[in-house]
Amino acid sequence: MREIYLSGFNTFVLPFMFGMVFVLAWCLIGAVRIIFQLTPADRKKFFMSFLNPKIMLKNIRDWFCDCLFHVKLWKRNKLLGYMHSSIAFGWFMLIVIGHIEVFLYTPQRVHHIWYPIFFRYFVAVTDSTMKGSFFFFMMDFFLLVVLSGIILAIIKRARSRIFGMRRTTRASLTDLIGLYALWSIFPLRLLAEGFTADISGGSFLTKSLNLVLHSFLSDQMNMLPTWWAYSIALCIFMCILPFSRYMHIPAEILLIPMRNAGIPVRHARKGIARLQVYSCPSCGVCIDACPMGVVKANSKDATVYLNRQIKRSNERRIEEISDKCLLCGKCTAVCPVGVEGDRIRIAQRSIRPYNLTPDYSNIDENSAVLSVNNFVSTENNDVSHTDNERVLYFAGCMTALTPRIRKSMESVLKKAGVNYEMMDKDGGICCGRPMLMAGRKDPAKEMIRKNTNIIKSSGATTLLLSCPICLKVFKEEYELEGIEVIHHTEYMDRLMSQGRLHVERSDVRYAYHDPCELGRGCGIYEQPRRVIAAAGQLAEGVKSGKESICCGGSLGSLSLRFEQRKLMTENALNNLTADNPDAIVTACPLCKTTFGRYADRPVIDIVEVIDSQTSN
Amino acid sequence: MSGFGFRLSPSSAINMDKVDRSRFEELCSIEPDALRCMSCGSCSATCPAAGFSGMSIRKVLLNLQRGKEEEAFRLMSNCMLCGKCTMVCPRGINTRRIVLTISRIYKKEDKR
């Protein structure tokens, strides 16, 4: 390649350079601020994670899979995945190959940032670079890939259903400016390179366009305005980037190592919470996922809008959105970039000022301790005992409202010959999760402390829970070294695999509902299904597992009224009964109560099924 | 007719003219449901904090209505926000939210 201009510079690169410097400075300052907003321990953890080869490998994999290939979107919908990855990966390859070209052909210009972007303007093709046709072909190919993605993006604006999305995000003004700038960058690049293709060389796309253009535009000077337009489009895009959804491009690069380092959301607006908000690409996947979306007005309360309002510091809307949410965690489960909608909302709740604070100092946990360390050893000689296993059964507040669950659980434990003790015979202290969900950490910590005392001094080896709401908090917030925390679905699965429960299989068809806190909250999907499959025929709802629909009764929502929840419950029920099962089985006392209100068929807990079908 | 000088316990009569109801009215404007409570006692029966402080959202609302705020705060101090009262309420009152709203708008210093 031969350089045409000695200076290697033209004034049209200035808009691009301005945008580039602006966006780089903005992102650098933002990244430093976010890292400094982390607590010292978290910051250390973050930096140390880079030294861990396992985490580093995961980072690299996630950078490619999430930022460039959008694997999670591919899994959701092929067309949606192609649209996003073609633009991201195509653009990335254009930048990479552009740099390789500069390195190979004009190594003296490596330090000119604009050179790879406007390479074709500054050079002329020579005979010696026949090999360059490989790079020219690659450049044209990836430009075509990006253009195809942009055509799909334009189609998606009009018909999002083709892309598997019922509802999409309403774009804000800055998003629209960014969108149109992004859409115009690549056609302008094609045009600009098309004009210069006869001098600088090109491949199937640019060369052919050059021939077309020259058939009616013979003046060479036409090319300068198109290069200017290309540069200005880049400038507009980069200048609007920090204020639009496109901020997700740089933010996600930082979010991935932070997520992999395991940094939790600790502050409502600082550190990783802020980073997650900026990583939100406003793709709108969470809008369709939200169980509140059955009422159309509620789709304005999806995580994507929460993120937007946090960016705008619109306190009234932030409060409204974060209080309404059921905290079912589905938006977190489906989010392609890993924005934790539920945790961000809890963090928003935690900064509310309260004048009255609960005080549990009058609750004497020591009296409770006395009553929980006489484990009942059942005299069932048919089953083998596991030595030294002392199970402490914490039924939980919600189970107190569904006494059949507790009765059946005790019956199952007796049948299996388990050495157990009830922790909350006469009503105990709440596990603390509902308080945590309301964002009130200190009172929750106090309850956690008292419960920990009771559990530790009971001498139990296993803590058995019937309520997934309790399970999650016991797993995440309690420090119970040496004591296994287990949900009754897991425990029954274990008892059955050990042969301690003899379940008779029936022909009843059970549709299993994954409770939010058990499935998405604790990742328990397989065990309850195995248990049900042993007792009857397992039927699935249309959406199940990670995408199961919240029953609508969740304690997570602070502001949803009783009547407003009805539609959500009915929607979840329709999802479960699509296959016309004989009964709905769940593993959460709260889901059972909520479904029980409106269901047209029996709603039972998994332990009731097993108890009624166990012979020993 | 209050007292002839021969009483064993102090009078429990409340002079509503002396009760400042502004906070309660503020509460009712934010949570209109607070007035829909029919004192059926379902919440009292299910409350896990009842065993410790005698908590019941029914009593809290009555006490606030009558200006006995200190007593209401004492009852509320053991509320664990577990939400059972919300689940059993036959009127569908969002009692959890009422507890949170009370904690927000009332103040301990308001001694009258």
Description:
The complex is a heterodimer of chains A (616) and B (112). In chain A, helix 25 links the parallel strand 7 and strand 8. A four-stranded parallel sheet of chain A has the order 4-3-5-6. In chain A, strands 8-7-9-10 form a four-stranded parallel sheet, sandwiched between helices. Chain A has a two-stranded antiparallel sheet with strand order 1-2. The longest helix of chain A is centred in the N-terminal third of the chain and has 28 residues. Chain A has 616 residues and is mainly α. In chain A, helix 1 packs parallel to helix 10 and helix 18 runs parallel beside helix 22. Chain B contains seven helices and no strands. In chain B, helix 1 packs across helix 7. The longest helix of chain B has 11 residues. The chains are: A mainly alpha (616), B mainly alpha (112). At the A-B interface, helix 19 of A face helix 3, helix 6 and helix 7 of B.
Which value, in Å, is the CA radius of gyration of chain A? 30 Å
Strand content of chain B: under 5%
Radius of gyration of chain B: 15 Å
Measure the end-to-end span of chain A: 85 Å
What fraction of residues of chain A sit in β-strands? 5-15%
Structural class of chain A: mainly alpha
The beta-strand count of chain B equals 0
What's the SSE blueprint?
The complex is a heterodimer of chains A (616) and B (112).
Chain A: E1 2-3, H1 13-37, H2 40-49, H3 53-68, H4 71-76, H5 78-105, H6 119-122, E2 123-124, H7 133-158, H8 173-200, H9 204-216, H10 223-240, H11 248-261, H12 272-279, H13 285-289, H14 303-312, H15 315-324, H16 330-334, H17 341-350, H18 365-371, E3 391-394, H19 397-401, H20 403-415, E4 420-422, H21 433-437, H22 441-458, E5 462-465, H23 468-476, E6 484-487, H24 488-497, E7 509-512, H25 526-535, E8 537-539, H26 562-577, E9 583-586, H27 589-598, E10 603-605, H28 606-612
Parallel strand pairs in A: 3-4, 3-5, 5-6, 7-8, 7-9, 9-10
Antiparallel strand pairs in A: 1-2
Helix pairs in contact in A: 1-10, 2-11, 3-11, 5-7, 7-8, 8-9, 8-10, 11-12, 12-14, 14-15, 15-17, 18-22, 20-28, 24-25
Chain B: H1 22-30, H2 42-46, H3 50-53, H4 57-65, H5 69-76, H6 84-88, H7 95-105
